[in-house]
Amino acid sequence: MSVLIDAASRALIYGIAGNFGRFSARDLASYGTKVVAGVAPGRDTRDVEGVPVFQDARTACTTTGADVALVYVPAPAALDAVLEVLDAGCKVIVYPGDGLPVQDAVELRAAAWRHRAVLIGPNTPGVISPGKSKLGFMPSFCYIPGPLAVISRSGSLSYEAGWRLTMAGLGQSTVIGIGGDPVKGLNAAEAIELLHADSETKAILYLGEIGGSDEYAVARYAERPDAKPTAALIVGASAPPGKKMGHAAALVGSQADSQAAKVEALRKAGVHVADNLRNLVDTAQHAFRQCEVVTS
Amino acid sequence: MLMTEHTGKCLLKAHGVPVPAGVLIRKSGHVQRWSGAYPVALKAQVLSGGRGKAGGIVRASDPGQAEAAAQQLFEREFGGESPASLLMERWVEHSRELYLAVTVDGQSGGYVILYAPSGGVDVEHQAPYKYTFGSPRDFRAHELRSMLAEVEPDGALRERIVALARRLLFVATAIDAVTVEINPLAVLPDGKLLALDAKIVRDESAAFRQADLADEIERARKREPRMVAKALAGNLMMVGLDGEVGLMSGGAGMTMATMDMIADAGLKPACFLDCSSNPTPAGYQLAFDVLDAEPKVKAILVSIFGGGTQIDRVAKVMNEIMMKRKSRKPVVFRMNGTGREKADAVMRDAGLHNHPTLESAVDAVVAAARTQ
User: For the domain bounded by A138-295, which CATH number is listed?
Assistant: First the structure.
C-alpha cells in the first residue's frame, strides 16, 4: 500500500474532453491507473479513449466507483469543479492548474479537510507511486519503484530529479508534487507526515525553493528523533530579492525566504542538502545509506 | 502585487474603513491643492519598506514648510525608488499606535489576524499575536476577542479592534488581497481608530475577476524594461537579470535550478524566462526574439524538461525557428521529458545537437558565452 494512490485507485478525469484530459486518459491508462470515468459538463461527448463521460461528478462516481480525481479546468472554474468532485466523494484530488486565486485555494483546502479528503495542488504535476499508479501528467519514464519518497514544490524539477534518481537505480516509493503556490491543499509538513507513516518509504528527498516556509517544516521534521533520513535541494540561490520567480510563492521578501537561510536551517537539522543538481543523486544516496545503517 | 499607501487607503475608504483626509501630490508645486488645515504630513509614495525610518514622512506646519518638504522628498530615493507622488494628509494627533493586519499564512493554509498592542516603525521587533482561522467563513469574533482580552484590558477599545478586524477580512476577500495591514493604527483621543498607513498586497491570480487589479498589472508591465515588457505581454514569465547567458526554460523550479548551475559555473543568467505558461510556436518565437535583440545576451540555453509540454512538439518548433533565425548567437539545447525519443530524432534530422544532460549543456553554453 503506497500513500494517497495505489493499484486499486479508481480515477476520474474532470475535463476529459479537452487536450490535457484526452492526453491523460491515454497516458494514465498506459501506466496502469484505472481510469473509470470522465466528466465534461455541457459537452455531448459520451466516450474518450474508451472511458465513459458524464455530465456531473456525482453521477460519474456513483456509476463507476471513482474515488480519486484529476481536475483539468482553468483557474476561474477550479473552485467549483474541485468542490464538485469533493461533494461527489473523491478522497484524493489533483488540481494541476496554476493561477488559482489564493482565496479559492484557502476555500478548497478547508473544504478538503471537511470532507476528510486530500487536495494535491494547485500548480502541480500530481502524484505518482511508481509501478502502481499515477494521477497527474509527469513523464512516466522518469520513475522506477523503490524506497525513496520525493516531495517537490516544482513539477519540472521533480521530473529532472526523478530521472536522475532512476538513472542511478535509486527507485521511488511515491513522488508528490505539492505545488508552487503559497496555499496548498497538501503542504510539505502534511506530505512528510504521510511519508513518515508509509512503510514503503525509507528515506525522503525534498525539492524546495526560495519563499514560503515549507522548508522550515521539513527542517522541523528532520529534528525529530524518529525522522527518516532526509535529503534536500533548494533552488533559487541566484534569484534577486523582491522578484517573483515564476511560482506565486517563489519570492525572497525577507532573509528567511532566501536559499542560503533555508539551506542553513536544513543542514542544522541534519538534512543532507545538495549544492545544486550536479550532486543531487550523491546527496540522496548519502541519506539513503544512512537509513541502511539505521535498519541494519 | 503591493499597492501604494494611497491606493491602499482608497480601497480601505471605499469599504468604510476610516483614513485621514488627504490628497495626492504629483509635483512639488501642487501642495497648494491642499485646502485643509495645518499641520500636515507629506508621505513619499514608494513601495520599498522602511520609509518612515528613512525620513520619507515629513511634518509641515504651514504651506511654505510643505512646499520645501515636497521638493526635498521628490529629489530623494527610498530603497532605490524615487517617489512618483506624495500623499499630503492632515497631521493626526493620537495617543497610541497599534498594529492590525489580515494576511494569508501559507503554513496554516488560511487567513490569520495579526495584532500588536504597540505599532509603528519598530513593530517587527515583537512577534504579533496571531489568530489563525483558515477560511473567512470560520472567523469567529469571540475567538479573536478572547485572544485580545489577554493584552487589551480596555473593553471598548477591544470591541473596536474586533469590528475593524472583521471589516479588514471583508476587504481582503472582496478585493482579493492576501495582506491588508494597518501600521500604525492610531487610537484617537476620543477612542476611535484611524488607519494612518495601509499596506495592501493583492493577489495577481485574481485579476480575471478584479478589473482594477488587471489595470494595475498592465500599468506595472509597461514600466518594466523593454525586454521584460515584451515577454510578459506575450504571456511568458520573465524576470530580467544582469548576466550574459540567455536562459529559456520550462517550469519555475527547473529555471531556477538551471540559473543556479550557470552561476556556479562562473557566469550569470541574463534572465529568468519560463516558457511553460505559453508553450506554443508563437511563445518560443517571442522568447528568441527577445533574447536575440538583447545585446548583453551572449549565448542562449534552451533547457526544458517537459511533462505536460510534449517535448517532441517543442523540438519541431525549435527546428523551424532555427531555420528562419537571423541572429548568430550560439544556442545550446537540452530537452528531455514526454516524447523525448521522437524529440531526439527530430533534432538529429535537423542537424541540431540535443545535450544528454543539463551539466554538459550548461558547460557548453558557459563556454560559448565566454568566447563571444
Answer: 3.40.50.261
